[in-house]
Amino acid sequence: MGHDTPNSEADDCNGRCTDCPSDGDEGGRPSIFTDTRVTLARRDYAKLFATVGGLTAVGSLAAPLAGLTRVFDRSYTGPVYSDGINLVDGDGNRVGESTLSEGEKLTVFPEPRPGIERAPTLLVRHSEDAYGGETKMEFTVSGYAAYSKVCTHAGCMVSNEEGETLVCPCHFGKFDPMDGASVVGGPPERPLPQLPITLSSDGNLIATGDFEGPVGPGGD
Ligand code: FES
Which one, 95, 99, 176, 212, has least CB within 10 Å? Predict the structure, then answer.
């Protein structure tokens, strides 16, 4: 399956090859690969990171990108997440505390609302004492941590894994999700920004704010 990237179970080639199976069938195991909503064409990644990466300055970018983006409506200038926004899976189902077991990963999204349809986010779950280093523990809950899935190098989707390390298939940028998604290999110069999350009163994962830093490339 796939090609010879390190231990990739199902590569996300972003359209760079024709060898790989489509996303969506990992035997029912929650995975960052069971993400039918992230099968975007390369041009869509470009739109994504151009739009999301420039979100804080979107005022000047909104107009030229207006006809291109499928992630944000043309008039959208707000945050990707905000306090109380539910995290949902690729089918739009809200993610609950029991959705993942320790060691599992899943691509999630902000629950759609006007202006926002998708903004891929990596949700991981580990034992709480497994986290350290740069992880903002106040942003985690019940062993869950969430990071932007948009690589900070050139905006590809971080969709492979090597052990517990998150791997970007484009230039093999590597991020440690138990160390605040810090860079542990490859060309990225910034970690994946972490999303502050908590559990709602009905037991679902919600954001308590937006990503801690700029999404995608740039933002230094
Ligand atoms: S885009 Fe991810 S390593 Fe280059």
Answer: 212
